Amino acid sequence: MPSLQFPLRDTPAEAPALRAELRAFLAEAGRDWPPMVPAYSWMGFDREFSREVGKRGWIGMTWPKAYGGGERTALERYVVLEEMLAVGAPVGAHWIGDRQSGPLILRLGTEEQRREFLPRIVRGELAFAIGLSEPDSGSDLASLRTRAEKVPGGWKVNGRKVWTSSAHRCDFMIALLRTAPAPDPKAKHQGLSQFLVDLRSSGLSIRPILDLVGQDGFNEITFDDVFVPDSMLVGQEGNGWEQATAELAFERAGPERYLSSLPLLVEALDDLRAEPAAPEAVGRLLARAATLRQMSFSVAGMLQEGHTPAREAALVKDAGNDFEQALPETIRGLVDPARTPPQVLEMLGLMTMVARSYSLRGGTREILRGIIARQLGLR
Amino acid sequence: MRDILVEQVDRLLASRSEPATLRAAESGTWPEALWDEAEALGLPLALVPEQQGGVGLGWGDAVALWQAMGRHAAPIPLGESMAAAALLAGAGITPPTGFIGLGLPGEPVAWGRRAGHLVLAPGGEVTLHAPADWQQGRGLIAREPADRPVLAAPLAEGQLPAAYGPDAALLAGALLNAARIAGALEAVLDMTVDYANTRKQFGRAIGGFQAVQQLLARCAGEVAAAGVAVANAGRAADRHGLGGAEFEIAAAKVVTGEAGGTGAEIVHQVHAAIGFTDEHPLHLFTRRIWGWRDGAGPERLWARRIGDAALARGGDRLWADLTSRDEDAIA
């Protein structure tokens, strides 16, 4: 029963200069962001912002130059991510492509797919959605039923995907689809494949779903005889589960799993000075933030070395979600509404609502803890 | 070097830090054999530079060793003695041999009655004492001997360099207690997973129930956070000195204190009644975790230090301060 190890990493030597560039850029770009922007953070979608980020070489930073990448380290990339998140930048239009779709195409895609997609992701021009959940398949993902049937020259897709963030604004989706029936109910992880699906395909309709804040953040996508060409299969037919699971290590490993609500602490801090309970409460939050930052950075180091730290990422995401959900509640317990500026109260109110999504998206708390429990050797 | 020493200490404590020894220590019996073997390995002077007769280990190494001691709930004040010797050496005083007690503001000294010497370091002024008499007591929760010295004029005095900060003894004590909690948490998590996989109810091991799995997964998260927090504090102390690592040490004490509370709660809940008995060894660890949470300042005190500094600096500096701590040394 080996417990999970999180060896400390040193920050890359390039970090201070990189941070200075990022901070100058973000101070300018974020000058007029209303509280709604940091409240949604990486779920916010702003193509113009993403193109500016792309111009500066901050998307696909670790990818080969042949595909437009920067051939920089995963730790440098981490520095860029955490600087973006610390101010709650609206990175959603490039976040998924940079974090998981691009790496997947790079790892398992055909040469043609790499040349077709990666340079456009790098430029911040191509936005990706994640096609995993379905109306009847949430935590039990492998039970998904949207199926792709073999037809001449490609596949015919029928079914529904749901909770797909920003799909109505995205260009492509990487969808996990059933290409063969499961041989038996216990082997439902077999027969799944991943496809690049053009969201403007004929037969594909996207219905925005309002979230509890009233924003049109996510969607239901219906496939009605949607044709997907053979060239859009990613990796190996039937190997989709393994591929998607490896992708989850990327999806769960990043600083977005503990920093989502940090901008509220930054925004509220100066107005907490007169509150006697603030020093202790703020100190506890910062102690956690500093520790989670090292844990998250440690996982980035594992990715840099080519490992797939799926379990480590699950643990850091779970611990990080606890922190980012506790933060708005802690601030709420400290602020005096009568003496607090309206923009702080607005961000607090929005994050109180948005925070519910933290421990749901990318794997619920209960699923993550199940993964950790299996790692501990509990059966 | 670090790994070899940690392995040696783990091996030594596996054979010498048995429940019987722990129980005897709680009744005031000094674990003579254990101390002698630790001394034979050179551990009390491990943090003293080689030119001053020690092994020359750093604070990061110390954290790893103290974690190992926590894993075995080591019933000797070896960590305190290592820290005391380090402070003496830092102030230019050659550390004496034998057990040296570490004096923290307002706290009794662990095993003071067995200490040949005592180190105090208020305001960075280190004094070496040889108390003739001790007012004996013991910790309410950890039950280890905890004595108050009757002080006379010091045998030696010295000044710590500025990098140690104004309260180096408290910082060293906090780092020690945090590291021990992190280690003890690893041990109780292991014990509890084993128990959950063997204890059967409703015809199956209780570790198969999701309710139990979810609790232990949460515990594993806290154990991991505690380990990272203390490693980070040790690294910061090696880079910036104890005083320069105040933030990381404070953060480690806060995180291990919280993790200790949550972790102990969970392991007791899973062990249920048997873990609440005197006979079961679980409390030999959890009582120490609770005791170490309070030693060298509870979470509250350290959290306030962090919070006061952050509030004084303001929101605009918060993120930059957090990130620059790792990068000053490099930039």
UniProtKB/TrEMBL annotation, chain A:
GO terms for cellular component: plasma membrane. InterPro entries: Acyl-CoA_DH_CS, Acyl-CoA_Oxase/DH_mid-dom, Acyl-CoA_Oxase/DH_mid-dom_sf, AcylCoA_DH/ox_N, AcylCoA_DH/ox_N_sf, AcylCoA_DH/oxidase_NM_dom_sf, Mycobact_Acyl-CoA_DH. Gene3D superfamilies: Acyl-CoA dehydrogenase/oxidase, N-terminal domain (1.10.540.10), Butyryl-CoA Dehydrogenase, subunit A, domain 2 (2.40.110.10), Butyryl-CoA Dehydrogenase, subunit A, domain 3 (1.20.140.10). It comes from Belnapia rosea. This is Acyl-CoA dehydrogenase. Residues 14-125 form the Acyl-CoA dehydrogenase/oxidase N-terminal domain. Residues 129-226 form the Acyl-CoA oxidase/dehydrogenase middle domain. Keywords: FAD, Flavoprotein, Oxidoreductase. PROSITE patterns: ACYL_COA_DH_1. GO terms for molecular function: acyl-CoA dehydrogenase activity; flavin adenine dinucleotide binding. Its cofactor is FAD.
TrEMBL record, chain B:
GO terms for molecular function: acyl-CoA dehydrogenase activity; flavin adenine dinucleotide binding. Keywords: FAD, Flavoprotein, Oxidoreductase. Pfam families: Acyl-CoA_dh_1, Acyl-CoA_dh_N. Residues 170-307 form the Acyl-CoA dehydrogenase/oxidase C-terminal domain. Residues 5-81 form the Acyl-CoA dehydrogenase/oxidase N-terminal domain. Belongs to the acyl-CoA dehydrogenase family. This is Acyl-CoA dehydrogenase.
